[in-house]
Amino acid sequence: MTATTHFTGDANPYGGGDPYADYRTADFPFTHLVDLADRRLGAGVIAANDEFFAERENLLKPEPAHFDPERFGHKGKIMDGWETRRRRGVSAAQPHPVDEDHDWALVRLGAPGVVRGIVVDTAHFRGNYPQAVSVEGVSLPGSPSPEDLLAPDVKWTTLVPRTAVGGHAANGFAVEAAQRFTHLRVNQHPDGGIARLRVYGEVAPDPAWLTALGTFDLVALENGGRVEDASDRFYSPATNTIQPGRSRKMDDGWETRRRRDRGNDWIHYHLVEEAEIRAVEIDTAYLKGNSAGWARLSARLAGGDWTEVLPRTRLQPDNNHRFVLPEAVRAAEVRIDIYPDGGISRLRLFGSLTGPGAARLTARHVELGG
Fold it and tell me: Angle at CA 234, nearest 5°, toward 230 and 236?
């Protein structure tokens, strides 16, 4: 584990105005990757030893933490995060918690994968954040219960060793454990509050599951697809186009700034592995006056030349467009070009893995300890 920009110590008490004005953050090198703990992928906080002041589920809310200085409840200040009560020692002679005392939460990743970076966000926890945090990971098959995860024979791997953190800050950590994880245990020492948890990495799907499905979405995040690059991310990230389900609002898709030149915008994707594409969906849901006018789809094998799969085709606003290809297209990468700008909400590429693609995916799964 290598810590990136590191924050420690209290933030100043809230003095009014924009609560994020003195928020401490940095550009971390891993935040372009998918958040494996995204609720849209099915992530959840399945247990915590204490959530007296604020519920554990707040950790995975997709939006930034909100702060209302006037909001109090019968237990005290209501915070938008996970907050535990203050720990105490065992007696008047020993009023302080011992070094081993800590609170914990169990997080099920929405998609199992290789963790490359973690952000423990203490936004608005200015004097009530944990002194230190640590994070551990484990890979278990099926749908283990909290009791299964906490069993004495379960071996956890340290992703972030116990490290001092700062209040009202994005505390980021690069992770070097090249393994596949399904669950995390987030520890705060000895107590306190964490606003948000983000777990950035690469999805590592179960090849047995994909083989059983046969035909599936080859570019979906949950199946191991990913965005390699995009021409524009001004309004929203290109990764939105391969999130689960249909878009539910305009900013849940990909929208570019308005072009004033003669060019066009595009996204470059990697499929889960080499596969044969048989059908395509291009959805412009909720993009009404700003959807792309036309779209073109190209594909290639790794390192090969681009071949047109779908010629430049007119798109309608707020509409799902379906295309059955005349013959299967073998590919490992895909590029969608939109003309001239605008956006799409989702791209779906349905097909199945080739023999070599399935073999490489299985070998990778074994290599990662899956």
Answer: 80
d(CA 231, CA 264): 8
What does the pLDDT look like over 200-243, one tens digit per residue?
999 999 999 999 999 999 999 999 999 999 999 889 999 999 99
> Whole-angstrom Cα distance, residue 243 to residue 221?
6
Joined together, the tokens standing for residue 88 give: 């105490």
Residue 164 binned pLDDT confidence (cut-offs 50, 70, 90): very high
Report how far residue 179's alpha carbon sits from residue 153's, in angstroms, rounded to the nearest whole number. Answer: 19
DSSP-assigned states of every residue in 34-45: EETT-GGGT-EE
Nearest one of 320, 348, 345 to 334, comparing CA atoms = 348
Instruction: Please state, as a whole number, how many other Cβ atoms lie within 10 Å of the Cβ of residue 134.
Output: 21
Q: Indicate whether 283 pLDDT > 90.
A: yes
Residue 1 has pLDDT above 70, yes or no: no
Report the alpha-carbon distance of residue 250 to residue 59 in Å, rounded: 24
Q: What are the φ and ψ backbone dihedral angles of 352, each rounded to 5 degrees?
A: -145, 160
**Nearest to residue 311, comparing CAs of 336, 277, 274?**
336
Pairs from 61-70 (Cβ < 8 Å, separation ≥ 24): 61/196, 62/38, 64/20, 64/123, 64/196, 65/121, 65/123, 65/124, 65/195, 65/196, 67/14, 67/19, 67/123, 67/124, 69/14, 69/19
142 — alpha (psi -120 to 50), left (phi > 0) or beta? left
Please spell the DSSP secondary structure of 295-323, one letter per residue. Answer: EEEEEE-TTS--EEEEEEEE--TT-EEEE
Give the DSSP letter string of 61-78. Answer: -SSPPP--TT-EETTEE-
Token pair listed for 80: 């938008």
Q: What is the mean pLDDT of the chain?
A: 95
- Helix, strand, coil % (nearest 5) of the chain? 10, 40, 50
